[in-house]
Amino acid sequence: MFSKDPSELIRKETMDNEEIGRAIQLSLVAELDAINFYMQQSKIMPEGSFKAVHEDIAKEEVAHFGEFMRLLFEYAPEDFAKIKQGWKEASGMLSSSDT
User: Fold this and answer.
1) 48 dihedral zone (left: phi>0; alpha: psi -120 to 50; beta)
2) Angle, nearest 10°, between helix axes 49-75 and 77-97?
3) Which of 15, 22, 54, 89 has its CB surrounded by the most CB atoms within 10 Å?
4) Helix (H), strand (E), coil (C) string for 20-44
5) The pLDDT of residue 16
6) Does the record bear Coiled coil in its keywords (predicted)?
7) CB neighbourhood size of 95 (10 A)
8) Burial, 31: exposed, middle or buried (Cβ in 10 Å; 0-12, 13-18, 19+)?
């Protein structure tokens, strides 16, 4: 499910800022994979506690995604700024399509 093998990030020396940014991006990918996995599983489960637990775990993964976004803001501000730019662009398109 990972876009890159996370074991490549294991090392003895400290990561530099660029590597920290990549590690955070990889963590974001992992959280999105987890959200999708748990939601896909819940879609094919019968109603009941097992399904409910999967849906609850998926919601927790969304919170984890938010935590990693906060880390991205702190450690990779250029990447976070691009996300904000994309948000603004999409918001402009959405508001202009409402008229």
Assistant:
1) left
2) 110
3) 54
4) HHHHHHHHHHHHHHHHHHHHHHHHC
5) 87
6) no
7) 9
8) buried
The model's confidence at residue 9, banded by pLDDT at 50, 70 and 90, is low
| Other Cβ atoms within 10 Å of 79 Cβ, number | 14
User: In angstroms, what CA-CA distances link 68 with 26, 63, 96?
Assistant: 10, 9, 31
| Predicted local distance difference test score (pLDDT) of residue 1 | 55
Sign (positive/negative) of CA torsion 65, 69, 72, 78?
positive
**What tokens appear for 8 in the block?**
């490549």
Domain ranges of the chain: 17-97
Q: Give the span between the Cα atoms of 56 and 62, in whole angstroms.
A: 10
C-alpha span between 37 and 1 (Å, rounded): 10
pLDDT at 3: 62
